[in-house]
């Protein structure tokens, strides 16, 4: 062993000597090269020997002016690589002090004393990342400097000197003739944008309606359009160019600014019922359009028609239509009625050209795009809803013929103005649309109601569906669906003739039986009616507010009236606070199974307000917060949301007073009103319990060996081990132990 170590040490010494000699050789060669270079530079004789003298220019030669070409690009500001380029990013004013920018050199010490805080990354002395310490060393941190927390552990990085990991690369600026690099950057790093893509030819139509597709319409002059669903896109004002989507039930609310009610009541198309069902027909199946060739002079209109007050349906562009009459082969016979597969696009021509069948139309006898069996009239329903004012109590209308808006010069009211349009479209699978119904809500408007709010609804149902009931989940709630709610009532069971508890439901859609929060009018005022409120959608937290207006005298004498209006804005469905109201624990809870509904808890019940000194009200409650607790149940891979608790928390009472600001409280301004905000909000709290780890008991292992496994040490189950056997075992054990320690 010693000899081996000596040989190793000798070899290592020889290697070190060889390396040392090589290092000395390289060093001497480098010194000589440096000396030679220095001599050639400092020796003027040597330098002059290598310079060729330039002859002096001739005086007789003609001097010509030379023009230096202008640079094609101006030089750029150079920045050092791997350096902090923004030591004071909040210094945005040259020769001026930026407020709260503590690193601005134009700010004096006196200026910094007037700052309320320092903007991020604006400290004069930067933090030193090379100083690291344990978290437990500092108990209280109240300095203006930032503190970074690294991962837990015994060590921390003292200094990271890898520049590429700490600094960005500075790319070159793309010049005007370097479009290849621009395209390379866009293709590699660009994402979705608002750039207008290639537009589809409006004369190309699909063979059948698919979900999300527009619903085509035809006007009397053969102009093509789509069924519109006006909505507020860029603002709250209705945009009539938004099309309705096939098979997607939608609801939108937007505003109409009529300005002068007397001038626009009877002329505005937006509030006229006939605008939404007369003068156009709905295309049953777009295959009708795909069999026609439309000339280049055609146009496709978005929406039922233009809703501007100056547009007339007769002014729409006339479309020249050339009808292509398809013919059937002589050997083709009408096929039997079949249901086309919903997951495939295939040619419906043999079906459409055969004898008319339910859900199909006959293309053979078509000679007019507007008058044929492949387009449907929009049929007004028999019953409609009327309200005395926007947001008022709804009731059934008592007319049989749909009226047009009329203006009463005496009362200044516009009656029979449309404030809600609801299309019910019956579909027959891939065969298209079989029926279109429309229902209206008529209101009586006054000049103070302007601008008005309109609601547009589209809903779809199958041809074989009688009264479909929509759920908010199956069984767990789906995010974005209404939170179902209802009032607990007693009703008589018609079969057993007993009184049962049930949750009252007012419709077949979740939004008809859901929790709601207040929604301001177009002018921002509160409404005390049950209509026009915002549905509470599961998983979506929201806040809404509106204003109640009162003058100084109202504040002095009508505090209780103010409180009543505020509470009705928060909860207009009955007594305040609400009683006997419940919320469905699941999205498909049965109203007859009361155990699947959780009662609403009420906290901070409002007290009766009293008038204070002057124009003030004490103990006013102007807000409510709805807190919904839910938990995920079932499989971890497919969790189902279940509501376990709902609480209505009224805000703490406060004292409000009429503020004497500006012209308020001056003589002659007693009727001037001030606005007070009423607020309602919703939040969701996930109280899901973590999955418990449960392990099964370890199985009992029964080891079985042959009866002669220990032979010859045992002669049988009833025979004792002999003394000589023990001696042999002891000897073997001693040999094994001694051998082990010898190798160690």
What's the short version?
With about 750 residues, the chain is of the alpha+beta class. The chain is about 15% helix and about 20% strand. The protein is extended and about 125 Å long.
What's the helix and strand layout?
Layout (H helix, E strand, L loop, with lengths): L1 H41 L1 H6 L59 H5 L49 H4 L12 H11 L26 E4 L4 E3 L23 E7 L4 H4 L15 E4 L3 H4 L1 E3 L5 E2 L19 E3 L25 H5 L21 E2 L1 E3 L4 E3 L7 E2 L9 E3 L4 E15 L5 E14 L5 E11 L22 E8 L6 E5 L12 E2 L16 E2 L6 E9 L1 H6 L1 H12 L10 E4 L12 E7 L6 E2 L4 E5 L2 E12 L4 E12 L3 E4 L16 E13 L36 H21 L1
Parallel strand pairs: 2-6, 9-14, 10-14, 13-15, 22-26, 25-28
Antiparallel strand pairs: 1-2, 1-4, 3-15, 4-8, 5-7, 10-11, 12-13, 13-14, 16-17, 16-21, 18-19, 20-28, 21-22, 23-24, 24-27, 25-26
State the separation between the terminal residues, measured CA to CA: 15 Å
Q: Runs with pLDDT <50, length 5+?
A: 1-22, 33-63, 293-302, 305-359, 740-744
Structural class: alpha+beta
| Mean pLDDT across all amino acids | 76
Q: Provide the domain count.
A: 5
How many E strands? 28
Number of helices: 11
Based on CA inertia axes, which overall geometry fits? extended
